[in-house]
Amino acid sequence: MRALVTGGTGFLGANVVRALLEEGCKVRVMARRHASRTALAGLDVEWAEGDLLSASSVRRSVKGCPLVFHVAARYAFGGGTPSEMYRVNVEGTRLVLEAALDAGVERVVHTSSVSALGMHDDGRPADEETPVRPEYIVGHYKRSKYLAEQVALAFSARLPVVIVNPSFPVGAWDTKPTPTGQVIVDFLRGKMPAYVDTGMNVVDAGDVGKGHVLAAERGRPGERYILGGENVTMRELLRLLASISGMPAPRLRLPYRPVLCLAHLNALMVRLTGRGSRRMTPETLRMSRHRMYFDPRKAVEELGFPRTPARDALSGAVAWFREHGYA
After folding, report:
1. Residues in the chain with pLDDT values less than 50
2. What's the pLDDT at 136?
3. Catalytically active residues, by annotation
């Protein structure tokens, strides 16, 4: 069977493409003309040149593909143009689903994010049914992913759409790298002298790729599935990285309010001079106040989603970044 993957040249997309090829699928990858194809170098895929915001190129890419995996998204915290993020993440999703509906595709897997889900005040792991509260949708990225998911849910009444919500993936082919991958790279470069008290759900990127294929095979249309791994605090994550890499873990934990002030100053410097950290933003600091813990039980039970331990997932990420010269 032929499958279209939007965003196949990106981190998650490259892992989805590999998972599909392992299952014997023929894969068509929609990519912009000048997009880097490093993450898919040497793979037997068909290329469809197009722009996610061009309805005609989206329709051409979808034609002849019974399966569509909409992975493409603008993923960033701070910097950039908010309007561009909403256009790509929300309107781009609408165009892909409209094209899929018109083409009569058999199944669409829409890549959302745990950023679109609710969370608990007390730090308990959230699931697909945890109510979403506006105060937890911090920043343009999270808002855009939430709105894109609402578009996908609306289409599910007319189109067999399954939604997957990856947590914080780590692993191979994080070429940019993503904000999560940049934490690992900074640690390996000795550029993380301190940390903030937060928590996250770490998932192996290869598992997420397989989870997309499982969602296409076994997922129920209109349902959401958290593709998550292990919940860890930032302190635990850094200790795991120290054990894996041989680098020392930072011991200094920074208080929230002074760091938030520094983040505002850093964001101003980035806007004015282009210098500074694009990872240390007011948006990411506000997100860090909440431990983003999630329960992937539904995906495990209904899809057979694999769960690689956080240590093994981080080991793979460290090995890949070192092998490819990031640290």
Report:
1. none
2. 73
3. 141
